[in-house]
């Protein structure tokens, strides 16, 4: 591995024009594809294998032409104080609004509140239901404008009018904080490298990689039904890992220059050593993201695969474009430790006195902050270990109160018309009115379908927590009917979840008696099924992802205990991060600072998503930091000294990488989409816990306690494992290697 990447790095350095041209061409091609692609439609949200999805599919078959997946809107009217919606003037205003709403070309139907029993008992609130032929993301802007104009005209007539539903659904915005995150990353890079040129390389390559990834996603969005959140997630992760991977290679390149090597040789060695770590770190992230497919929720699978593709592009760019750009930069990228001047080259370095590293100036300090911290940890490993574990344990305490759900209009900020419409409907018709349950009765297997429909309706009426049950509405064939059930609790409550299960249990009894099958669907039931499906998939997903990554890390570190320690440390990180998410988004701690206007249940997919992404990112720091320790140990240092050496060379860079990744993720907290906001915060705090508590404190403490046992590997396994040479041992025999005119052909043969 190291030898191949070494040759690749030198080739990219020499053939920099060709390499740069390839990546610019790919970026241009992806950009043209994105610009010419048709606009993305609505991303299909299906959950195969669940009752809610089965019922939805049955509706599509038995009630054709009803646009079951079409957008909906509820225009909610409230009379001025002291008046009622049944007053003549208010009624005339509502009827005119209904007529205006029905004129749209994409409107399937509009229900008049006075003909559909949609006026509250006290007469203060009424609503008109609008059904569209296409989904919310496919509605034309003129249709949305017509909806808003009709509502505004009713407001001008003196009514309070708000609009709920998904008809006004918009593409989420990330806000200016995303740019601030990139700016923070730039500042950290300048401080780390002390050079604008060196700092600009990781930013440039990361932006190119993200540009290729996001443009490709945009180009394929319509064909593959990729939602807007998919590209935001790919941008978030692609930026973070793209900057980090380039940072590690540039940092190693400067260290190789400080050893006195020629620039082409330094580029080759940087890609051969740090590049090997980049490859395996990227593989762990890709495994974690692609592994989301085991959940069997297509939307989540597409998000994971798209983000994994962007990570793969980031790895390839780091291995090829970074050495090419280093060739362009030349002497403007200085050796590590240089302050305004270049240090000695290899021939001069060879003439330095014994005991003084080549390229080091005589007055340069030998111990940096990372060295001093690691020395402290190996002297007090047990105390540091206990402090780190207890600290993360305390942060994880709120996770015990985790409540899961999917966002609806009730989780929107109170400043939005969707949230105000939700509140008005709750005030006028009860908390459960915003989460009606759709019961589908399949009577094909019943002797008398009509009797079966009535039996199901009567069973549901007798259940606790039911406010209203509509009469069965059969299809034209008379073999299937729908029943709408209004709970007395809000959609995201435990009581509503219990009611869904109670209806399904009652349906089982009806099937035994009549042969008719009862299914419960609707957005509320789908949310419940998604949460249960995600919970059921969490353990298999953990086993798959952690198991594959564990095997990969055994190959990298040639150790059993080091990968085991890495996995256990990750569990601490993700539990602490989930605790922080619960504290902010569910309990409301620091919610104002984070821009969380409305607290509520944590998004259902957050735990499994954080497990996947955080595990991949956690292994990044494990690979980058511990490979340096492994390298020192393989080259003859004692275990504790190898820990200190690893920190000496890697701590500053890992710290910078973590701060950059946190800044990039935190930049997405400003998104208007609650899902993106929560993911951005969760990943940022998880990186903080993992990089600064687990990798910087717990890892060296455990390694110091284990000593040589940390690197133990059974002989039979050592012989069976492939030697990937992440430490670059194979390169040490080529210390004075010079450019070989046949090397390009040799690389191709390899």
Describe this structure in words.
The protein has 750 residues and is α+β, with helices and mostly antiparallel strands. It has helices at 2-14, 16-36, 51-62, 88-101, 141-156, 177-193, 196-224, 228-258, 263-290, 298-329, 346-349, 369-379, 381-396, 417-429, 449-461, 494-514, 523-557, 561-586, 591-594, 606-634, 639-666, 674-706, 715-720, 743-749; strands at residues 72-78, 107-111, 125-132, 160-165, 404-405, 437-442, 466-469, 473-474, 480-487, 517-521, 602-603. 61% of the residues lie in helices and 7% in strands. Strands 6, 7, 8, 9 and 10 form a five-stranded antiparallel beta sheet that branches. A four-stranded antiparallel beta sheet has the order 2-3-1-4, with helices on both faces.
- The N- to C-terminal Cα distance equals 11 Å
Please tell me the total number of domains: 3
- Shape descriptor reads elongated
Strand content: 5-15%
Total count of helical runs of at least 4 residues:
24
Low-pLDDT runs = 339-365, 736-741, 743-750
Largest sheet features: 5 strands, antiparallel
Task: Please state the structural category.
Answer: alpha+beta
Radius of gyration from the alpha-carbon trace, in angstroms = 30 Å
Please state the average pLDDT score. Answer: 82
Helix content: 55-70%
The number of E-state strands comes to 11
Properties at a glance:
five-stranded antiparallel β-sheet; single chain; 7% strand; alpha+beta; four-stranded antiparallel β-sheet; 3 domains; Alpha-Beta Plaits; 750 residues
